[in-house]
User: What shape does this take?
Amino acid sequence: MINYLTGSRAAEIYSLTTSSIDLALGIMKFRVKDTVKRKDTTKVIPIAPFLREQLALYLSLREDTLKKLSIKNFRPLLFVVHGKEPKELTDEKINDFYREISINSEVPYFTTHAIRYQTQTDMTAAGMDFLHTNCLLSHYPFLDEIFSKYAEVSFVDFKEKYLKAVESILKEML
Assistant: This one.
């Protein structure tokens, strides 16, 4: 759900830590490569209500799993457990998981990148404009000086359009 509802790259997803998620504020912070400036930056995405419920459940299960393994302060949000050692997720592990889903459900194989662009397609179909979907996919950094001469995207405006599109998509799905 994180991949689909945020349109994030695999590297952005597995770079999430427990401090990246703020359920009280309703935001997720992704570490993103700014392809224009060639440096790391942060993308802040609102957490849709449905995803907030799923994340709260996941965080609870995550803590229970780590307690059973007697592990404290494990920062990565998503992980797999091999024996008694949790390991951070990687591109390969995420895409292996998607491959397993496609085999077991008889749907064509898909990747995190395919989901990313499906997100853009679905958000656009749900009424989110091109500028805001590009912000979601980190193709257009907020207030980047190259683009801000022509258009400025505020987080409040982005959040409103994003949550409205997510609500529309989830109504159709569920």
Q: What stands out?
A: The beta strands are 21-22, 27-34, 39-46, 79-82, 85-88. Residues 2-173 form a domain with the hpI Integrase; Chain A fold (CATH 1.10.443.10).
